[in-house]
Amino acid sequence: MKIRTDPEAPGQRLDVFISGAAEGVSRSYAEKLIGEGRVLVNGKREKPSYRIRGGEEIELDLPEVRPLELEPEDIPLDIVYEDSDILILNKPRGLVVHPADGHDTGTLVQALLHHCGDLSGIGGVLRPGIVHRIDKDTTGLLAVAKNDAAHLSLSRQLEDHTMHRLYLALVEGRIHEDGFVDAPIGRSPRDRKKMAVVADGKPAYTSYRVLENFAAETLVECSLRTGRTHQIRVHMASISHPVVGDTVYGFRKQRYNLDGQMLHAHTLILKHPSSGEEMTFRADPPEDFRKLLEILRKKG
C-alpha cells in the first residue's frame, strides 16, 4: 500500500499519520508496524516520531490477519459485563494475560477463546482481543474486544486518555500528600527482564491519591495517563514507596506472607464502542488484599 503525504500539511508524527491514513490501524499498531520495518518513507525506515515534511511517498506493508492458532481452554472467568462488542472481567492473581516465554498454556487468552469462540484479531495470533494488560500477580478489571471495530475504539480511548483506569495500591511507608510521578520508563540497563526509570525511556505519568495511612504502609489510588509495562510498580518504587508484596521492585524479604503485589485495578471507565455510552465498572480487591487491610486497621 502506497500513500503520498500532503505537501501542504507537514509536521505530523509518522505513527499518527499512518493511523489516520490507513483504515483499521490504531496509533499503537502503527508504531508496531514501523518498528517491524513495515513502513518505509521514501524507501527508508524511520522512527514513529519522524515528522512528515510533505510530499513523501510512504509504503505500508499490512500483514494479513492469520487465523488464531491457540487452543481454547476451559478456565473459569469472573465476568463483570459482556455484550457482542466487549467483555469486562475481573482477573485473578496468578493468571497470565497472553502466551509468552514460559507460559504457552493456561492464559487468559485461551480462557477467552473457550468462552467467546472468537475475538478481535488486531492484537495478533497470541494476543487476540487484548487491548491492555495487567501483570500476572496484579488483579482487577480488564477490557477485552470481541471484534476489530471494538478493538480500534478501545485502543483510541487508551491513546487519547478517555479510558480511565484506577488502581488500589498498598505501598511501603507513609505518604501524607497526593502527588504524581512523571518519569520515563524503559528496560533496566542492569537487568533486561525488569523495567526502570531511564532517561531514554518512553514517557510515563502516574498520579496517586492517599486513601488511608497505617503504621508503616499507605493505601493509595493510582491513576494512569500512560500504560507502560509495570508502570505503577516502577514509579512507586522510584519514590521509595514500592508496592507491598512486590519482590521484583520492592523488598525481597516481605513482612507478610503474600502471593503477589497488593495492586488491584478496581475501576474502569470507558465509552462503549458502538453506542458511545460512558460505562463505569468496579471490582473489590481480592480476599488476601482485604484481609491484609483489616489486619493493618486493627494494628492502628
Query: Any idea what the CATH architecture of the largest domain is?
Result: 2-Layer Sandwich
The total count of strands amounts to 14
The chain-level structural class is: alpha+beta
Tell me the helix content. 10-25%
Largest sheet descriptor = 9 strands, mixed
Name the assembly state: single chain
CATH uppermost class of the largest domain = Alpha Beta
CATH fold-level name of the largest domain: Pseudouridine synthase
Shape: globular
Summarize the structure.
This protein is of the alpha+beta class and 300 residues long.
Written description of the protein model:
With about 300 residues, the chain is an alpha+beta fold. It has 3 domains: about 1-60, Roll (Structural Genomics Hypothetical 15.5 Kd Protein In mrcA-pckA Intergenic Region, Chain A), CATH 3.10.290.10; about 65-160, 2-Layer Sandwich (Pseudouridine synthase), CATH 3.30.2350; about 160-270 and about 290-300, Pseudouridine synthase (2-Layer Sandwich). It is about 20% helix and about 25% strand. It contains 6 helices and 14 strands. The strands form 3 sheets. Strands 4, 5, 6, 7, 8, 11, 12, 13 and 14 form a 9-stranded mixed sheet that branches. It has a 3-stranded antiparallel sheet with strand order 1-3-2. A two-stranded antiparallel ribbon has the order 9-10. Strand 9 and strand 10 (about 195) form a beta hairpin. Helix 1 crosses helix 2. The radius of gyration is 21 Å and the shape is globular. It starts with a strand and ends with a helix.
